Amino acid sequence: MLKISTETLRLGVNIDHVATVRNARGGVCPDPLRAALLAEAAGADGITAHLREDRRHITDRDIDALMNGLNVPLNFEMAATKEMQEIALRYVPNAVCIVPEKREERTTEGGLEIAREENKIGDFIAPLREAGCRVSIFIAADQRQIESAARIGAPVIELHTGAYCDANAEGRFEDRNIELLRLQKMSNFANSLGLEVHAGHGLTFDCVKPIAVIPQVMELNIGHFLIGESIFIGLEGAIKKMRNLMNEARS
Length: 251
What we know:
The chain is of the alpha/beta class and 251 residues long.
């Protein structure tokens, strides 16, 4: 059944790279929780934090502070490992997003491969769902992966927008249009299966509107660009500008 919400498109702000700056020098500044609270005050609907196996940016202490200090939902990004499952079950954040993870990657390079590991991923998310976490799966805009996500009972998918954003930034506009069409089609397909659709990775002021206008997309998760842009116009200014662009696209 087709489900298209009339709710305002939500914005989740990823604060990982506030921790990256802090960890470059050590110490406690800048504080990811302070950034999260500023994002909340600027209109973010949720905060995203990725606790990686190697703790390269967000740390366990940050998750503890975020869980205790936030008034908006925390979206806990994590790999499908026993360690991360135990942490998620200890804190029971509002949302858990399962992402692929490799130590050597600079950032998440693609979507999770579910189609080859349906039983494994299905078993992994079952206790998280039972505990009350809203589970989403970060995947490519690919029909096989979306069908697998639906079969294992994930209520939400987040479509990887990286290829679209890269093509736009590099001026490969034919490739960009192909990727945009794929995201549009697969958002519609996922919605037809009853899945809630989110999107994210690499979104900027220049390329967010065509994604925001896709009616089935209910949430965008944006981090690195907003943290970088905050150097120039402040975090509040960056978030409010992104929110305005999203609202303009939807209106």
